[in-house]
Amino acid sequence: MTTHPELLVPDPATMRHVLGHFCTGIAVITGHDGVRPLGFACQSVTSVSLEPPYISFCPASTSATWPLIRSTGRLAVNVLARDQRELCAQFATSGGDKFRGVSWSPGHNGSPVLDGTVATIEAELEYEHGAGDHTIVVAHVTGLRAARDTEPLLYFRGAYGGLDASAP
């Protein structure tokens, strides 16, 4: 018979610790309000449906950037590459010019497509649902692109990393 570790009470610190054992990719959600580019780092991006094509991500309820992107109805999910750790840090901060020194071009829907990413998903806002201290966003995918031979930036147990190059 298998014995399991002690079951922990789900307080915020324990949630962060245990869920940190789930490896995730990191993305920058971008939009453009007609005046300036907007963006924030996000590690909660997932595919929801292939037909119709939906993705989901979860910005913090305290995000000042998400309401500005939401108001446009259009966005891009830029999946960061292994060598874009500093870019992640730049978009994870509050305030300031997050696009300073960042190379990007407008996507088909006008949202910024960051250079050097693993993949970009262009989408339109479909649904939102409040969920505790975050918002669950479901977006309808309108376009996709992926780079070849580029490894993703991963987050695991509170640290950044990438795939093991020696793995098959």
TrEMBL record:
<dbReference type="GO" id="GO:0042602">
    <property type="term" value="F:riboflavin reductase (NADPH) activity"/>
</dbReference>
<feature type="domain" description="Flavin reductase like">
    <location>
        <begin position="19"/>
        <end position="162"/>
    </location>
</feature>
<dbReference type="InterPro" id="IPR050268">
    <property type="entry name" value="NADH-dep_flavin_reductase"/>
</dbReference>
<comment type="similarity">
    <text>Belongs to the non-flavoprotein flavin reductase family.</text>
</comment>
<dbReference type="InterPro" id="IPR012349">
    <property type="entry name" value="Split_barrel_FMN-bd"/>
</dbReference>
<dbReference type="GO" id="GO:0010181">
    <property type="term" value="F:FMN binding"/>
</dbReference>
<dbReference type="InterPro" id="IPR002563">
    <property type="entry name" value="Flavin_Rdtase-like_dom"/>
</dbReference>
<dbReference type="Pfam" id="PF01613">
    <property type="entry name" value="Flavin_Reduct"/>
</dbReference>
<protein>
    <submittedName>
        <fullName>Conserved protein of DIM6/NTAB family</fullName>
    </submittedName>
</protein>
<keyword id="KW-0560">Oxidoreductase</keyword>
